[in-house]
Write a structure and sequence with these properties.
Largest sheet of chain B: none
Oligomer: heterodimer
Distance between the termini of chain B: 43 Å
Largest interface: A-B, 30 and 31 residues
Number of domains of chain B: 1
Structural class of chain A: mainly alpha
Strand content of chain B: under 5%
Number of helices of chain B: 11
Largest sheet of chain A: none
Order of helices and strands of chain B: HHHHHHHHHHH
Shape of chain A: globular
Radius of gyration of chain B: 18 Å
């Protein structure tokens, strides 16, 4: 299950290799982002859940329960804070190259279709990488929690290679934080809310960026 | 037979299979002569006749290797194939998605290292793939699937299960059969890009296939995975390579 779920987003590249790409790259990239990526995550997560359910191997980390209002606030705040942390990490290479003024932009198309897709993808990713990965690594392979969190973060980050090498580093950081939220709160609800908060913040920035242009 | 002896037998048998298939026809002039000789007797075009001959030879040698290893391991055909459990279908579908995404991830890493790499072109220049492109279109599915069936029965059947029957643990048996399979694919290519693509895809296929055999108790799901994978990617490479160049083709395989 772990080996087969490393990078579901890469599956959309198969769709990209059919048909001529001339003059349709922008439209295809948009379709890939809004339909292909969430579809790939949903299919792979659904199959992974079916496999663990059929083998009676569903880990306890998949449990979603309300753990108090404080965790709700912490989770959403952490998610929004992670946007700033990812921007900061993205600025490091530019600052090291001597750039004095760093302008950061969001690589995301605005719009309701894209918003829906990133919210669906966020839930699927949390079920897969935090619920299934961390749970399986802890319960079946008997890894300590910190090690399971790091492995799951790398697995989650590799799924973002599609967006570039820097995105892999940024998502490793986010993955570790989401994993810590899961272990600390004892419920999958916290990382799901944090991830939704992060994606909503990114979408709001994309909308703002779109209006300025 | 103990584990080291059976592992050595696997290496010798598979090396013999690949050597008998590859070495006599490494010389292009000899390939052409054999093709013309076959064309005289079959009324087929020389390249078509040679492609069919090469395929039949590969399958017969593979079947011989399977029979030999099965006999030494004391495994019957029923034990090699096994009977899949009911939960095999979602596991197979997950394996299909997982193998494809791992394969594309490895190709994405190659494109990051060398953005000008022509993966579809390189794959269609692999000798055995180039030869089957001379055949009618439906053969592009049939031949890779048939080769995949024999390979899967040998590597996941005779080698993996044979090592298990000899007393090996699953991790060693899976790693050994996967590495042997990947080496067997890499020795049949001629460039670094071909070796990287076929090597990494073989490692992904071997790892997922071995896990699938362990999870389902049968070689059949791994066989279906390998046959669909080989047929699909051979056709995808052929169609991507035949398309007019729109470089950089980073989204293509």
């Amino acid at each position: 299950m772990l080996v087969a779920t490393v990078a579901p987003a890469e599956l959309v590249r198969i769709a990209g290799s059919f048909g001529s790409s001339t003059g349709r790259d922008r439209s295809r990239a948009r379709t890939t982002a809004t339909v292909g990526v969430p579809a790939a995550y949903l299919v792979v997560t659904g199959l992974a859940l079916a496999v663990v359910a059929s083998g009676h191997l569903a880990p306890d980390r998949l449990i979603v329960r309300f753990t108090g209002l404080a965790w709700l606030v912490i989770a959403i705040g952490t998610g929004v804070g992670l946007v700033a942390a990812e921007f900061a990490l993205g600025a490091v290479p530019k600052l090291l190259r001597g750039t004095r003024i760093v302008r950061l932009s969001v690589q995301a198309p605005a719009g309701p279709g894209y918003l829906t897709s990133i919210l669906i993808t966020a839930v699927a990713e949390e079920l897969l990488y935090r619920g299934l990965w961390i749970g399986t690594l802890e319960q079946r392979l008997h890894l300590p929690a910190w090690s399971a969190i790091c492995c799951a973060a790398v697995g989650y980050a590799l799924g973002h290679l599609y967006f570039g090498g820097l995105a892999v580093l940024q998502k490793t950081l986010s993955g570790v934080v989401f994993g810590l939220l899961l272990v600390a709160s004892g419920s999958l609800l916290a990382p799901v809310l944090a991830h939704l908060g992060q994606n909503l913040a990114v979408h709001a920035l994309a909308e703002r960026q779109g209006r300025r242009r | 037979m103990n584990v080291p002896e059976y592992a050595c037998l696997c290496i010798v048998t598979i090396a013999g299979w690949l050597a008998l298939y590859r070495l006599p026809f490494g010389d292009p002039a000899r390939r052409r002569r054999v093709g013309l000789w076959l064309a005289d007797r079959t009324a087929l075009r020389p390249e078509v006749a040679f492609a069919l001959f090469g395929t039949v030879l590969y399958l017969l040698l593979g079947a011989s290797a399977l029979a030999l290893l099965g006999a030494f391991a004391g495994l019957s055909a029923g034990q090699i194939v096994g009977r899949p459990s009911v939960g095999a279908i979602p596991a197979l579908l997950l394996a299909v998605c997982g193998t494809s995404s791992l394969n594309i991830l490895c190709i994405s890493l190659l494109y990051r290292a060398d953005p000008r790499a022509d993966v579809p072109g390189e794959i269609t220049r692999v000798q055995w793939i180039a030869s089957i492109l001379y055949l009618p279109r439906h053969f592009r599915w049939v031949i890779p699937a048939a080769a995949a069936m024999v390979e899967e029965l040998v590597f996941r059947g005779a080698v993996l299960l044979g090592l298990g029957a000899a007393g090996s643990g699953f991790v060693f048996a899976a790693a050994f059969s996967t590495v042997l399979f990947a080496i067997g694919q890499v020795v049949l290519v001629s460039t670094r890009v071909q070796a990287y693509v076929l090597g990494t895809s073989s490692l992904a296929l071997g790892t997922v296939g071995s896990l699938l055999v362990a999870a389902t108790g049968s070689v059949l799901p791994a066989l279906a995975l390998h046959m669909s994978f080989a047929g699909f990617y051979t056709n995808l490479s052929a169609s991507s390579s035949a398309r007019p160049s729109t470089a950089p083709r980073r989204l293509s395989l």
